[in-house]
Amino acid sequence: MHAADQLQRMNAQELREFAARLITELTDTRREVSLKQLRIDQLTHEMAILKRWKFAARSEQLHGEQRHLFDETVEADLEAIGLELTALNRADEKAAPKDQPRRAPLPAHLPRTEVRHEPESTICACGCALKRIGEEVSEKLDYVPGVFRVERHIRGKWACTRCQTLTQAPVPAHVIDKGIPTAGLLAQVLVAKYADHQPLYRQEGIFGRAGMTIARSTLAQWVGMCGVQLQPLVDALRQALLAREVLHADETPVAMLSPGKGKTHRAYLWAYGTSEYDALQAVVYDFADGRSGEHARRFLEGWSGKLVCDDYSGYKALFANGVTEAGCLAHARRKFHELWANHKSEVAGEALSFFGALYDIERIARELDVDERQRLRQLKSRPIADALHQWLILQRQRSTDGTAIAKAIDYSLGRWQALTRFVGDGALPADNNHIENRIRPIALGRSNWLFAGSLRGGKRAAAVMSLIQSARLNRHDPYAYLKDVLERLPTYPARRIDDLLPHRWTASLADG
């Protein structure tokens, strides 16, 4: 009746405004439901394709290591999609309880460590002393490199004899709810796969020798779930990166498996990182199924700083939209070095002497602050760079078009402004070597980068590697970092997620 009375008191104008608000709210709600349903349909379709790949006979075309990596990726993708679907459905209604299969008990021969959980107070709200009437025990599988052990979580049951109140300490939150792995075991699996280049089928054998065989399908499910849980942290790391004025960029090809064809095609891993002169040390990888400049534009959307990169055309569109290009002196030098190493070219040798003089100054500049570095470069590097420029112009006039030396000179002259931008800016490095060193771990583990045609699997790997390599940049042990983060994530406030980023995390935070 209250709502009806309120409507009766409204005049015509108020009624029209009220109706307009209702229509707007209804339209927004329908749009939100439609978008959510679209996402659910997309995930359901993706899951159906993955299941067809997993069980179809044509997947038998894959052999050896390709088949192992195929199975691992599909299992991880299915688990990740399932987790996302659960989160979407939970927003509308509580998920119906599922019949959980009974898990086999953990082997009795593994050592046990008891972790007791008791109420902070054993005094009931009514004033009586609680009496311990029993306990609940759950076991989780932990792993310290080389040794399995079992954590026995014991939750005492306390009851009040007067008011029959039952009290227990809450169940500790875990990244994988009701699963057996501890954060330490999950961290080990992730670090072994993405830092030590150990595919899951190899880890299965390693764990078997340590006394506990874990099916690779189970390991893959854990990897998929961890990837989903860690993604908000990677998103926050990307935002921290895009707040910096100077960034590096580089890309490297990786093989992506095409299920059904039994072949691989070329995908790319892009790397974006802060400068070696930046107080914030971070790198974020972005996996893409191609090398189009659209991928770089999408990742750096809204950013307008100074980008240190090579001469790849994919970055050119950025420079037309507010991004300042900073070239890589090492790339220019490398072209002359190849001529000197392979043909003992005297012209190339003379060019190397100029580059060598510039790098001699950079070794000193590296130890200075921004202002001192800029003054040193203006005083020492500028005259050498000007002399090199004049020398290049003179040598180009003497060189025949199309020769290797002419191409090397043209590369430097064509990018001269970008190549020497560091001379007038103390915040800029002279080359792109800092990010190239972040790409090198990928080259070492290329056999792990067969993603069964899964863009999702590639992006998951890129996300976890972003955290691992950023932890290394900040001189953290990746295992210790991931273990602590995975322990904290389930209950950590979203508004404070930045505190868990590698450049803000400390070992003392984990110990505390």
Automatic annotation (TrEMBL):
A single Pfam family, by name? LZ_Tnp_IS66
Q: Give every Transposase IS66 C-terminal domain span.
A: 466-503
Q: Where is the Transposase IS66 central domain?
A: 178-459
In residue numbers, the region (Disordered) covers 91-114
Q: Where is each Transposase TnpC homeodomain domain found?
A: 42-115
The record ties this protein, via InterPro entries, to:
IS66_C (IPR039552), Transposase-related (IPR052344), Transposase_IS66_central (IPR004291), Transposase_TnpC_homeodom (IPR024463), Znf_dom_IS66 (IPR024474)
Q: Where is the composition biased (Basic and acidic residues)?
A: 91-102
Q: Which residues form the Transposase IS66 zinc-finger binding domain?
A: 122-163
Q: Which PANTHER family match?
A: BLL1576 PROTEIN (PTHR33678:SF1)
Q: What is this protein called?
A: IS66 family transposase
Query: Native species of this protein?
Result: Zeimonas arvi
The organism's taxonomy opens as: Bacteria, Pseudomonadati, Pseudomonadota, Betaproteobacteria, Burkholderiales
